[in-house]
Design goal:
Blueprint (H helix, E strand, L loop, with lengths): L1 H13 L2 H4 L17 E4 L2 E4 L6 E6 H4 L8 H4 L5 E7 L2 E6 L14 E4 L2 E2 L17 E8 L3 H4 L5 E7 L7 E9 L3 E13 L2 E12 L8 E12 L5 E15 L6 H6 L20 E16 L4 E17 L4 E19 L5 E23 L4 E25 L3 E20 L7 E18 L4 E12 L3 H4 L13 E13 L5 E13 L2 E5 L5 E5 L2 E16 L7 E19 L1 E2 L2 E2 L11 E11 L3 E10 L2 E2 L7 E2 L2 E13 L5 E9 L27 E9 L1
Parallel strand pairs: 6-9
Antiparallel strand pairs: 1-2, 3-8, 4-5, 6-7, 8-9, 10-11, 10-37, 11-12, 12-13, 13-14, 14-15, 15-16, 16-17, 17-18, 18-19, 19-20, 20-21, 21-22, 22-23, 23-24, 24-27, 25-26, 27-28, 28-31, 29-30, 31-32, 32-35, 33-34, 35-36, 36-37
């Protein structure tokens, strides 16, 4: 029935394909990927070559180059970023840093959907709520940039949703695969009038999972609207609802992992197993935003955005059943000045503010085989986070870009115990105000080569989940992560853009790094680890061995290679009598090497191949346990053919983990009882089709 309804909606919205969208001439036009890369960064779309920071753009083609269920493969092509999946729907993301403080979720990066922060007031980001098909692209800035984006120690990601650009049309994709995998994605983008366009994206995903107790069920609907209500004014609206549920199988010991990697965490001592307790995450979230952009004059523009979210999260765990109601509301507003009249001296300035208020009701109960029973405790927390920013940039003689920005950030958390012993009033953890400066420069050595450098301060306050973790004890002594990042880089491209090279070196000394620890009961807590030295080298190369052409059997052949080297070490770190100073930073591999090949033939036949090498990963602070290195190989083929006027059919099939490697992904860090390992799926397949017009 779900498939029938989706097909009916697809054809009812299109009526006749050629009535809505322009006809797609597959044999006569190929998009030109050799045009200069533009990236949404620092309040404008800018050429990537002249940017003062390490950055990268990911388009929809790369997002869809492998399976359609996750952004993981595309994001992992970016050097310096590592995304993991413990089980279907359970993601972790590290930007220029380890996953050591993120047992799940995203905690030390700032993520926006267009102008709207998806990262909430408490510092957490539910990236798994988004459907990849609803994302037109990602713009990634690496390294701390709190001066204009607020608290982060790893970087910033801006996602571009469908509907805010001029891309019109509709599509319906159906995919099925191994381990009970199924996905349906429906998207339509229309322009009823000259000044108004909108998009609606709907998806349904399910999976039984590779391991026991790792099933996924996800439903999303997203809509975006853009209205140019005057020659100077534009309104944007974004609304997203997601209903996500996934089971969490839990970590295995080395012996359990070797014997049966598909098993869920078994009972141990007084604690039952993951299957018995029906461990999982169930998240129902509404996220929305309204943004107004108005050109006050030829030089001044004002942007104001209102946004918020309502989330209901249930988390049956081994030792408890947590229920959370999370409410967030925020505002971002700035005035921007641009003067490009003088080609020899171009100026721009921005002055603005962003703030969020979060209210979190957190109740814990006994977990009786997936049912919440006796109350353990009830608490309420409030988070207040806001910052002010000022930025200036000048382009001199079309060669030298100078950039300076300064942010003033404020963070505070209030908490109140309601049960078992009610407190009379909120208690407050005040992180105070923090200055976050950034300086950057980029110089065009030639028309195709640019050198860059930057200095920036990183700041990441403890999240709600770290101040009040699963051990249900408030940690008022936890300090924010801070540090200064120093960076140099070089970008180069050939005159015809068939070869693009980007490389960077950085050094980030982090103070008071937040580290996850596990108690004997399996509950987590967090502490500050002192100082961490993070040095890294990132390099990427993209070359078109065969430039895109229509009139030949092989129409294009591109090869990309991305390398990350992480020299991350504890500089000063002691826990009791244990001194881990000089050890490798937990959860961070030394080397990651990703290669991707895209090959397009005549008759609209294409092949995409992705290879990921990840070196061994230390799983505890003592560096006595490691996850093995692995080579992950993925491949996808597709063929597109016209059906009727303006409508096209794409058939595709793919394989993940082609080499059938046995590897652990999303490892549990500093796990008590040696339960470190979360086995990733063995070789698996998928097949599907996509209707487009």
């Amino acid at each position: 029935m779900r498939l029938i309804k989706a097909l009916a909606l697809f054809f009812s919205t299109s009526a006749s394909c050629h009535l809505i969208a322009q006809e797609v001439q597959l044999t006569d036009s190929i998009d030109n990927p050799l045009s200069p890369i533009q990236i949404n960064a620092y309040f404008a779309k800018r050429p990537l070559l002249t940017l003062t920071s390490s950055a990268q753009s990911i388009g929809q083609d790369l997002i869809a180059s492998q399976g359609n269920q996750t952004l993981l493969t595309a994001i992992n092509t970016v050097p310096g970023i590592r995304m993991e999946e413990r089980s279907p729907g359970s993601y972790r993301l590290a930007m220029r840093g380890s996953l050591i403080r993120s047992p799940f979720g995203i905690r030390n990066a700032k993520i926006y959907v267009d102008e709207f922060p998806l990262t909430d007031a408490g510092g957490n980001t539910y990236l798994n709520l988004l459907d990849p098909a609803s994302v037109r692209g990602l713009h990634i800035i690496k390294g701390p940039d709190g001066s204009i984006y607020g608290p982060n120690s790893g970087g910033v990601i801006q996602l571009t949703p469908n509907g805010f650009d001029a891309h019109l049309g509709s599509s319906l994709a159906i995919q099925g695969g191994s381990f009970g995998g199924f996905q349906e994605q429906l998207s339509t983008a229309l322009q009823p009038t000259q000044n108004y366009n909108f998009a609606i994206d709907q998806s349904f995903s399910r999976s039984d999972g590779y391991r026991q107790n790792s099933a996924l069920n996800k439903k999303t609907i997203q809509t975006t609207h853009r209205w140019n209500y005057s020659p100077s004014g534009q309104l944007k609206l974004l609304a997203l609802y997601a209903n996500l549920g996934y089971r969490t199988p839990g970590g295995l010991t080395q012996a359990q992992y070797d014997e049966d990697p598909t098993a869920a965490r078994p009972p141990a001592g007084p604690n039952p197993g993951a299957m018995e307790q029906r461990a999982g995450i169930y998240n129902k979230t509404f996220f929305g935003g309204l943004s107004n952009t108005y050109e006050l004059s030829n030089y001044f523009t004002h942007v104001i955005s209102l946004f918020g979210s309502l989330a209901n999260v249930k988390n049956p765990f081994i030792t408890n059943f947590e229920k959370r109601d999370e409410n967030n509301i925020g505002l971002r507003s700035y005035i921007s000045y641009h003067n490009e009249d003088n080609e020899q001296l171009q100026l721009q300035f921005q002055l603005g503010v962003e703030g969020q208020k979060g209210d979190y009701k957190i109740d814990n109960f006994d977990n009786e085989k997936g049912i919440a029973t006796h109350t353990q405790n009830k608490n309420r927390l409030e988070n207040d986070q806001h910052f002010y920013f000022l930025r200036g940039q000048t382009l001199i003689a079309k060669k030298l870009t100078l950039e300076a920005s300064l942010g003033l950030n404020y963070n505070a958390i209030k908490y109140e115990e309601i049960f078992p012993e009610a407190t009379e009033r909120f208690r407050k953890i005040d992180f105070g105000t923090t200055w976050m400066p950034r300086f950057g420069a980029s110089y065009l050595l030639t028309h195709q080569i640019a050198a860059r450098t930057s200095i920036s301060k990183g700041f990441s306050a403890p999240t709600i989940a770290e101040i009040y973790p699963s051990d249900n004890e408030f940690n008022a002594n936890l300090k924010p992560e801070t540090g200064t990042n120093y960076e140099i880089g070089l970008r180069a491209e050939s005159w015809n853009r068939r070869l693009i090279i980007d490389a960077a070196y950085y050094y980030f000394r982090m103070d008071d790094a937040i580290i996850r620890q596990i108690r004997e009961s399996g509950k987590e807590y967090f502490l500050n680890a002192g100082k961490v030295d993070q040095q890294g080298i990132e390099a990427s190369i993209l070359t078109y061995l065969i430039a895109p052409r229509k009139q030949q059997f092989i129409q294009s052949l591109s090869l990309g290679s991305n390398m990350t080297y992480n020299h991350y070490r504890f500089a000063q770190y002691k826990v009791g009598q244990d001194d881990f100073s000089g050890n490798k930073l937990t959860a961070t591999p030394d080397w990651i090497w990703v290669n991707h090949v895209s090959l397009t033939f005549d008759k609209n036949f294409g092949i995409n191949i992705m290879h990921n090498f990840t070196s061994s990963i230390p799983l505890n602070d003592a560096n006595t346990v490691y996850a093995d290195k692995y080579h992950l190989l993925q491949a996808k083929i597709n063929w597109t053919t016209p059906l009727v006027k303006g409508c096209n059919l794409q058939l595709f099939a793919g394989v993940d983990n082609l080499l059938n490697e046995k590897y652990s992904l999303g490892n549990d860090i500093n796990a008590f009882g040696g339960r470190y390992f979360n086995a990733a799926p063995s070789r698996n397949y998928y097949i599907g089709f996509k209707l487009m017009h």
